[in-house]
């Protein structure tokens, strides 16, 4: 039997759920297919558990930075309690709540492994070996996400390495944890387990947080060392193996072997497209899927354009849950619009496109200290041929930052387009700075002129006052009636 529906969504993570929800709201009959847990990687093995693991130690350190509160902290971090709280946040890896949400939203659920089977066709193989064939009248959406990529290091695969899944779902903290990689997963899990008291060793091929401004990676490395972790940059690994005592031994070129109880591999992600039936529609299995700004797959899959979409990590535009959900909203809405023969708003910043993927992708790394960025780095702006001004100020120059807590402070940077006089990039590094990021995102997406930003007055005394310090570093734009940047601070006495 072939079941006909309007839209088939493959993958019930947050991205797939959002596509399904928006398409359903547009009046379409939608079925979502999931082979694991409804809620996907983010809910059970990535964003939610990782931030839960990080939060308790971060709160403890925040209290210790404030005299008076610091004296009240008399105990040690209760790691078992942290892990129990993580288990609660992932519902003990039960997706009953997600399944209930789908039912309430009127979205059908097929449990099993989905494969494309030609034009607008999806075959679902269930756990009992039976199959269901779905025929989509309007669209099929691939929202299968990614898996951890394990490098081809001799002996590593046989050493039973952790990936992000094992790191975020562990029920005990190993005494010694080696981490291969220098990206977000590596830095955050190093921060979490160092906070638990594990002996952490980070082995990074180059620097940390390579996609951010260099000072962010430097601060993350210093912060990890401050937590007692060993950080090796420029590490060249030779091999890995488990010895007869079940220890992982990692041979490092030109250095001493690293011995640990567990090794976490955090060297990147690979698309979940190898066993998806892409070959039946003329696409290459195992590849990332190229899409346009409406998330429509490029070319004519199975000989017909306009029916296959790829949303979220699988299209490699921005491997972040919030960005995938943003794409999902655009895709669900445009699928409904096209199905109804309605107007498609696909101009830049239109409701049916993911323009922000190119210009304003926000990201927070919950390291010690936090590192947050949006838009272009200085180097990326130069590669793009933009004429820029780069403004750096210490986070401690904002009174609110000093009141918030003692410590090394941090740093803030704006990258400004000289020709348009708008912000095109921002980076913040320091304790508890994640909440600064959305203001920068709005400034970039809205292309707010610098002269107008002068009128966005930050409240005193907050950490957000750093925006005033950044604008002062830029210099107040000349305008009739302006007194100039040299005028006294009328609020200083306050």
UniProtKB/TrEMBL annotation:
<comment type="similarity">
    <text>Belongs to the class-I pyridine nucleotide-disulfide oxidoreductase family.</text>
</comment>
<keyword id="KW-0520">NAD</keyword>
<dbReference type="InterPro" id="IPR001100">
    <property type="entry name" value="Pyr_nuc-diS_OxRdtase"/>
</dbReference>
<dbReference type="InterPro" id="IPR016156">
    <property type="entry name" value="FAD/NAD-linked_Rdtase_dimer_sf"/>
</dbReference>
<protein>
    <submittedName>
        <fullName>NAD(P)/FAD-dependent oxidoreductase</fullName>
    </submittedName>
</protein>
<dbReference type="InterPro" id="IPR036188">
    <property type="entry name" value="FAD/NAD-bd_sf"/>
</dbReference>
<feature type="domain" description="Pyridine nucleotide-disulphide oxidoreductase dimerisation">
    <location>
        <begin position="361"/>
        <end position="467"/>
    </location>
</feature>
<keyword id="KW-0274">FAD</keyword>
<dbReference type="InterPro" id="IPR050151">
    <property type="entry name" value="Class-I_Pyr_Nuc-Dis_Oxidored"/>
</dbReference>
<dbReference type="InterPro" id="IPR004099">
    <property type="entry name" value="Pyr_nucl-diS_OxRdtase_dimer"/>
</dbReference>
<feature type="domain" description="FAD/NAD(P)-binding">
    <location>
        <begin position="6"/>
        <end position="323"/>
    </location>
</feature>
<dbReference type="Pfam" id="PF07992">
    <property type="entry name" value="Pyr_redox_2"/>
</dbReference>
<dbReference type="Pfam" id="PF02852">
    <property type="entry name" value="Pyr_redox_dim"/>
</dbReference>
<dbReference type="InterPro" id="IPR023753">
    <property type="entry name" value="FAD/NAD-binding_dom"/>
</dbReference>
<keyword id="KW-0285">Flavoprotein</keyword>
């Amino acid at each position: 039997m072939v079941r006909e529906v309007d839209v088939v969504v493959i993958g019930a993570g947050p991205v797939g759920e959002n596509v399904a929800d928006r398409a359903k709201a547009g009046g379409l009959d939608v079925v979502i297919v999931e082979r694991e847990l409804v809620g996907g990687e983010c809910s059970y093995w990535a964003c939610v558990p990782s931030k839960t693991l990080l939060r308790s130690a971060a709160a403890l350190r925040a209290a210790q930075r404030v005299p008076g509160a610091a004296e009240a902290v008399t105990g040690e971090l209760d790691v078992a309690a942290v892990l129990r709280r993580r288990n609660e946040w992932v519902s003990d890896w039960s997706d009953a709540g997600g399944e209930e949400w789908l039912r309430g939203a009127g979205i059908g659920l097929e449990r099993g492994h989905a494969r494309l089977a030609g034009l607008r066709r999806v075959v679902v193989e269930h756990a009992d070996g039976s199959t269901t064939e779905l025929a989509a009248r309007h669209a099929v959406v691939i929202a299968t996400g990614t898996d951890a990529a394990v490098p081809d290091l001799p002996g590593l695969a046989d050493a039973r390495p952790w990936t992000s899944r094992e790191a975020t779902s562990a029920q005990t903290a190993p005494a010694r944890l080696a981490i291969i990689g220098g990206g977000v997963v590596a830095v955050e899990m190093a921060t979490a387990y160092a906070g638990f008291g594990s002996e952490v060793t980070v082995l990074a091929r180059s620097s940390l947080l390579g996609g951010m401004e260099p000072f962010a990676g430097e601060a993350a490395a210093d912060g990890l060392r401050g937590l007692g972790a060993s950080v090796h940059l420029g590490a060249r690994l030779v091999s890995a193996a488990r010895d007869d005592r079940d220890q992982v031994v990692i041979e490092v070129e030109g250095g001493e072997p690293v011995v640990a109880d567990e090794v976490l591999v955090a060297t990147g992600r690979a698309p979940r497209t190898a066993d998806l039936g892409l070959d039946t529609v003329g696409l290459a299995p195992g590849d990332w899927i190229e899409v346009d700004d409406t998330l429509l797959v490029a070319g004519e899959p199975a000989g017909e354009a306009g029916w296959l979409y790829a949303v979220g990590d699988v299209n490699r535009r921005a491997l972040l849950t919030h960005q995938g959900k943003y794409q999902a909203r655009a895709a669900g809405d445009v699928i409904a619009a096209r199905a109804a023969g309605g107007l498609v708003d696909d101009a830049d910043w239109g409701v049916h496109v993911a323009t922000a993927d190119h210009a304003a992708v926000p990201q927070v790394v919950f390291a010690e200290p936090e590192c947050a960025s949006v838009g272009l780095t200085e180097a990326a702006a130069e590669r793009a041929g933009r004429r820029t001004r780069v403004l750096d100020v210490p986070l401690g120059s904002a009174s609110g930052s000093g009141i918030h807590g003692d410590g090394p402070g941090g740093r803030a940077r704006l990258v400004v387009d000289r020709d348009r006089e708008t912000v095109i990039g921002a980076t913040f590094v320091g304790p508890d700075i994640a909440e600064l990021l959305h203001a920068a995102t709005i400034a970039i997406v809205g292309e707010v002129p610098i002269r107008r930003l002068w009128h966005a007055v930050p409240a005193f005394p907050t950490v957000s006052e750093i925006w005033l310090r950044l604008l002062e570093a830029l210099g107040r734009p000349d305008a009739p009636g302006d007194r100039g940047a040299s005028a006294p601070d009328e609020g200083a006495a306050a």
